[in-house]
Amino acid sequence: MRDFEFLRPATAAEASRMLEDIGEESRLLAGGTALLLALRQRLLTPTHVVYLGGVAGLHRIEFDERNGLRIGALVTVAEIAEHPLIKARYPMMAAMAGQVANPQVRSMATLGGNLCYGDPATDPPICLMAMGAWVLTIGPDGGREIKLEDFFVDYYESALRPAEIVVEIRVPAPMSGVTGMYTRFVKTRAEHRPLVGAAVVARAVGGECLESWITVGASTLIPTRLHRAEQFMKGKAVTPHLLLEMAEMAAGDVSVVSDFRGDEAYRRDMIRVVLARTAATVFSVSL
Amino acid sequence: MSQHLIRVKINGEEHEVSVPARRLLAAMLRDDLHMTGTKRGCETGICGACTVHLDGKPVKSCLALAVQADGRALTTIEGMCGADKALHPIQKAFLEHGGLQCGYCTPGFIMATSAFLAENPRPTEKDVRVALSGNLCRCTGYVGIVESVMAAARAMAEETKEVQG
Amino acid sequence: MSSAKIGVSVPQLNAREKVLGTAQYVGDMKIAGMLEAKVLRSPHPHARIVHIDTSRARALRGVKAVVTGADTPNNLFGFLHKEYRILAVDKVRYAGEEVAAVAAVDEVTALDALELIRVEYEPLPAVLDPEEALKPGATEIHAGSGNLAREIRIARGNIEEGFDRSVAVYEATYEMGYQYHGYLEPMCTLAQVDPNGRLTVWVPTQSVFFTRQILAEALAIPQTDIRVIQTLTGGAFGGKLTEDLNTPICAFLSIKSGRPVRLLNNRLEDFLGARSSMPARVKLKMGLARDGEILAKDSIVVADNGAFSNLTLEQVLVTAFRTDSLHRLKNVRCHARLAYTNKIPSGTFRAFGTQQMAFPVDSHLTMLAEMIGMDPVDVHLRNAIQQGDTSVHGWYMGSCGLTDCLEKSRDGIGWHEKHGRSLGNPTRRRGVGIGSGIHVTANRQIADWDGSTVLLKMNFDGRVILTTGESDIGQGSNTVMAQICAEALGIPIGHVTVNMPDTDIAPLSFGSVASRVTILAGNAIVRAAREVREKLLAVAAEKLHLSAEHLTIEEGFICQAGNPEHLMPLAEAARMAMFRVGGEGIFVKATYDPPTTMADKETYYGNVAPAYSFAAMAAEVEVDTETGQVLLLDSFVADDCGRALNPRAVEGQVHGATVQGIGWALYEHFEFEDGRLVNGNFADYTMATADATPALRAAIVESMEPNGPYGAKGASETAIVPIAGAIANAVYDAVGVRINSLPITPQKVLAALRELATSREKELPHA
Asked: Measured between alpha carbons, how far is C111 from C108 in angstroms, rounded to an integer?
């Protein structure tokens, strides 16, 4: 790790001002589980690290039926996994959070940090995107709301402007009749990162899919919503065949990365299999 | 560059330490405070040999800066035993049930186990395996470790009963 | 004599300090004035070093020494094969090779200094595949070598006749890659030079005497000017024989700086610096008779030495011929070649090259069994070597529990209910597989002495200090030695203290290699204890006016045989033996050199080990036919260790070896891109976690080795040998595909399943 100045703002607005003053040579630190890896290997060499840990008000989890779920950016992944309300109302999210990385990383890693870092091989963005989540930010130009679908721009790159900070993550209140599931697919039991993440959220009545939200990630540069597959499902009677077709279509629609952890063909295959299986569970269909 | 005076409560004792910003939490414990029970294993957050509790939660001290612990409470392996080095039931179980060989991963496993049993005092073997997935051991094949954790859970349940009784 | 110390699961002597976190590894030690060192490594697999500029690094505040190859002694060194310099000179031969080193006041300063060193390279063509390396005209890695590090030809019996008589002949080629040892304590050395130039080195080594010899050659100083002290060792598995350069670089920096220096690898450096296991490509052909007898075995081995020679040259011989002694073979042949490549030098690893042939042979036997319509376990049993046999290469089996191991594994997994039954559903298919293994207990190979000398000192209080050169590398050998000593003397285990090896103090031995400690040091300890016992009984007999032959020692007291009444504390007898006219301190030296022979240099024939250990594994897997994932459901390993002196310790070795084998079979692999290791970290090089393995089961087979102390032989390496073959066979039983390259990845399984489906379609008669 190169040496750096360590700054401790008291508010998010102050943090934003610090980032603005210092410019590109600064990095924001939340939990640090991802950033520290890059700093230690000197892949990132900021002159200033702005630490959000002292900022009050970013640790809350709140819920009401009208506004849905509001999660402060510094809430840890473990807190999400264990939160009684999230477990009751957003079981898909709690289950996902309970599988991220490993227990020690979960108790340090923050949701805000996880989203902003833009690592493709991580679970929360994929799951939350399918749940219709968005983030609240503050920055030099004031605050704004960004849907997760618009948040991820490229490999390790978000839509955040310079000095803009995510302060809260919001998830709509669950609609009645909507169920969902996130699958973290690891290639072998010994792997530490998902090869594919897939989420299916759907509203179905009498075996008919009224609406669905489908996302995949980890094998794509950024978490990706699959609009064509969603449209394809809309209004159709859910059969094993339909789900297999949907998964085939979805797997063909995404651009897939290729590396030593999995070549493109295998990753695409797994997107298909994992999506079909996830959807089958959501719709209670056996393939 | 930036040097910081931090206050941190470690194993119940207040410490003031002056550290550069880039000092890792694990390095502060080991190099500044000479508490070497916390081990360096992989430095990528996988092996868990550096596990400590930060405000009661298990964390990897190789993935945190010392300055992040300012104003907070830490428990390390050195804080697990009682007075006169009386073994904690988890330590005793690891000793008696083949929970260790070379011993290098042992402090990390004990710290992860302690955090886990606090959350789940009556685990199944499967629960234990999942809960310890943030720690690597190359010697034991995990069989002795899982046995040790199960034995510790039983012993701690007995202790609780005695206290309540 | 009481048998309370043998066959008892005593916790490790130092278990308390390990659970307390007070156990001190070398990375935990500090000496006043100690510097921290860091190493700059080559980014190129093969390149000429044009120029190195260290001036900016030297100028950095806190930097005390910066060295390059030009500064190092101009001589080649190595434990058996002399090819190394402390730092690269003129050219680099693999990506990761040590080019420069820095010692500074702390680790971050040393890392800062590395960033300031400028090295100009002129890349050379890199040779990355061993078969390519051996082709005429290939770029030479060491001038004049032809890239051939060793070539072996072994032939016994009549191979052609064997194949002629066979009713089934099967041939296939197998690929096995590097496996990293994965000890949790990365390699680390602490070195200090005194004003007279005498060097003291603290290091977690498997052998203090090997380390001393390597250092003496590397630094060009007499061995006696070097003191090597083994520190508590956080796992080794063959990886801490100090054939890597961590220790010489550290010692050299200490000499250059005149200060104590520590060099602690971080994990990323350790992947590059360590000598991981030998990759091998094995082309194997075997023939079977109608009744399952193996009539011929013919193999061609091409193994990867990497850029420099270590004991890999000795390992390739093991690959070539060791598993032949697992069976009652008559006709065998092997042609093995070990090639230099521009990759990480391969080195010693648990089981020392045995598994590189066991995986092919175990895979083969299942295929051949199918060809003749026989159960694979029965083929193993039909050929299993037996107690009293002398194998095709002259190995005498004083004890052998192989048949028992095979039967226990078979029955333990529920073989008859599961094998060949196509269990599961179309997407999740289950199957079982069998594998078996052999390993030496000690090996007369390094020199024509394969012994162990121990020193036993008794103090005034009747307690003893045992001093040996045998390294406890975490497996608990010190505890087992204490058990043997306590048993042989008749004292409580707590009355035995075992010293860590120290070359200035310890008597000669080779340390923790070749599963030798229990049998060699164990026998020496029994001899030493017997001598101490006789001395003490003689003086006690004199005092008690009884005959010494009617006396015994029980739990530290002199007793009459058959009568538990304490006649005299041992301490009293000890003092009587010492404090008398002509008396002396009780300090006994004993040696055990086993009744073995060095193998013939040309033919490799000869009984090299006092005992041979055996193991078998039965595995049950579930294969997901849509993802190719292999889930190990159940694992049953039976291990013949002669006798389990400490059953929990033996089980610990078996389970640990099993998971390491599972890793090699399913999870672990080096990924290279343009000759550079790209997954050299624990996030991407995936060793099994607790939730990646099932609850392993093990059985201990006690074949009572006549040469062993209390019947024991080696227990720490054998169990890794049968694992990969058993798992590959289980995959075959489940889904009918043969994966001949390790690891058995989901991609390979899925691709093979598709190929199988395609070929089956083709076989269908056209309408």
From this structure: 5
